[in-house]
Write a structure and sequence with these properties.
Alpha-Beta Plaits, homodimer, alpha+beta, 100 residues, four-stranded antiparallel β-sheet, globular
């Protein structure tokens, strides 16, 4: 399992638009082949901070996400709403060992 | 869904012991009532950094984890292996809406 945690800080005035756009991205992303998780998380201490938890079965499936129309649309749409540059941190998933 | 991402930095010489202890914690944690995910992740850029991705159905299930024998055993066992204090960041899960 390959995981990217994307850390996002959104401008307060675009919070609801960001959530709407990201929910749509989630809906399409979980249908990608090889997607295991695409969790959309809102920071409890600072609701303008989010984490996107994106898990794929392998490197190819993870890379393919960045060429999907829904990702490219989301990326362009949310760009002006960012309060800080997004930061993605990559991990190797040690557990669980399988989809189960 | 309530999510805690626990960020861990481990002393190089205790890396393998940490992974072994954390795999055991994972095995018990995913069997807790209300647990949705307990992913063990190793940072690609710095393999001594880990993230534990702990998702529960609700606040009560999340809180109950901290009273389980496997969590308390893990916490005591790994304490001397930490290179930095652990940091847990709490999130409200917006998506997915259900376990499915």
């Amino acid at each position: 399992m390959i995981v990217t945690i994307v850390h996002v800080k959104v401008k307060q005035e675009h919070l609801h638009e960001f959530i709407r756009a990201t929910v749509i991205n989630h809906e399409y992303s979980v249908k990608e082949p090889g997607n295991l998780r695409f969790d959309v998380l809102q920071n409890e201490g600072d609701p303008t901070r989010f984490a996107l938890y994106e898990a794929y079965e392998n490197e190819a499936a993870s890379a393919a996400h960045k060429n999907t129309p829904h990702y490219l649309t989301w990326k362009e749409m949310v760009a002006p709403w960012m309060a800080e540059p997004r930061e993605g941190v990559r991990y190797q998933g040690l557990m669980p060992l399988s989809r189960a």
